[in-house]
Amino acid sequence: MAPSPSSQPTLSVVPLLTAEEFETACHAFLDRVHVAGDTKVGWSWIRLDQRATGPILSISREVGHVSTLHTSSDESMPDPEMNQVLQWGASEEDPEALIRAPGPSVSLQVVYDVLLSPTYQVPVLYFQLRQDSYPGPLGIDAVYQYLVPDQYRKELQSVGIMGGISFGYHPDSGTPAFFVHPCHTMDAMRHIAGQRRLTPEAYLIIWLGLVGNRLGLQLPKELFTKEGMEIFQGTM
Amino acid sequence: MDSKATLGSIQKAVWDGRLPLQITLAPSESRTYDQTDPYLIACPRISYLPSLLPRLRAFFASSLIDPNSRPHEGWFSFEGVPLKWHYPVGLLYDLYAGADPASKGGRDTDLASTTDGDPLPWCLTVHFSDWPDGELVRLDPDGIVLHDAFINSVKEADFLRNGTAKGIMTLSKEDSSGLWEAVRDVDLLSFQRISNILIPPPSQPFRNVPIRLFLPLPPDSGSPSLKVVQSPIPPIIPPSSASIAASQSILSTRGPQLQTIGSALHSLLPHLFPSRRTPVLAKPVLHGAAVPMSAPVEEVARCSGYGDGWVYIVIRMMG
Lengths: 236, 319
Fold this sequence. Notes:
The structure holds 2 protein chains of 2 kinds. Chain A is of the alpha+beta class. Chain A has 9 helices and 6 strands; from the N terminus they run ααββαααββααββαα. Chain B is globular, with a radius of gyration of 21 Å. Chain B has helices at 3-16, 53-59, 89-96, 144-162, 166-170, 173-184, 188-198, 239-246, 261-268, 297-304; strands at 18-25, 39-44, 75-78, 81-82, 122-127, 211-215, 227-229, 282-286, 289-290, 311-317. In chain B, 37% of the residues are buried. The longest helix of chain B has 19 residues, at 144-162. The A-B interface holds A 52-53, 85, 88-89, 92-93, 118-120, 134-137, 139, 160-162, 166-169, 171-176, 181, 183-184, 186 and B 72-73, 84, 86, 129, 131, 133-138, 140-141, 144-145, 147-149, 151-152, 155-156, 159-160, 165, 223-228, 230-232. Chain A: It comes from Aspergillus ibericus CBS 121593.
């Protein structure tokens, strides 16, 4: 039997997380990142904040310098109708201002906040994509262009009223933020977890792979290369 | 009295509830600065502010310095605070206007009377430019963001009631958009037809009751955030906590205890609500009225929820 990551007990009610399990998972994941080496992971930072709404696992990364914030109907927006629907998001008032004002190169940064939904009792991903010196978060078109990998775009855009990404308020800061609506998370986690006994951290890692991947939050392989870092307990 | 009729009449009263609003165009956007005539309306408490925008945009058209602004670029503020449009108007008023809640018998002597003027009509400012991106989610011309926010809220309430997201998933597409249209148009009959499909019948108790509590923040806190408290609240007090209560109360030996507004507040905010029966330090306000502490939470949700199925209670400090 492989050595289990620390000695976390397995989840009480798959596919849900209790507040305690969520916190355990966040701590274990944070430890894993520190063991792998913060600089190797390639994120700007990762931290765990204790807020009135509960713990928030916060990860930031540079999306990098992009030459423009243009979202014309190029290959990144395969469906012209969808493109039209998506264009209001960032800068309805005057898209040109946002596209041209920053000059030849702007730096984008994304902050991902993982919280436990008090309604669904599963993690929920809030994120804000920001451009230096712009007060609010960037809009949904920029999210699809710079965060969502090509293979997930259609899938994410096809569900719900405005796609799998909703625009709402961050539960802690109260500021506008995008989030992935967690109403499908339970079924997806149940499906993936199957009969495995999961530790809270394994749950979080699987969830990050499921939801984070679609929003450009990839887990670096360095997190899983050291001995004793297997995420499943026992035989699978 | 037939209790079903009572629930129905309470729901009708909630849907009939209106707030007089006096809406002024932001002086900086007006050709006549602060001399623009205000727009007056008796606005349904359960409706959402953006539904007023087309009318306001038309009303203020001749006064606007920028003639190119569009209705969905409109946003509201009260005393300089941008108002979150995804909350119903009545909730925003209960949160921000600082008005004393109505209570049974109309006597409310423990609260200072309105020394700084009558809060009604509620005076709001509408803006059609300078959207506060750091504080408010932008709207779109087709109302998609507003519709999406409403449905997300409906889904959450549904999930709490059933423990699954199946209820809302079983609604036809027509009924799902019909639900939003019924709330948007304040059409109680259409709303009832669809919510009868969505909400389990009275014989089938909710798993949890969708309740959110809004706590007061100091007026000078300068934070756009409201303190919101939410935790799963079952309609029957679970046995584990009931057995603790059993040592204190002989009543609980008679069987499962109904969760009341008072017991829910006491379990979520024990410092503000030391008693389950009497408001001591704070009182719960819903639709502008003080909610009785003895009201069973499930009944409150069935008859006095907002259009999205949630009971939004504002906690008002006393004294």
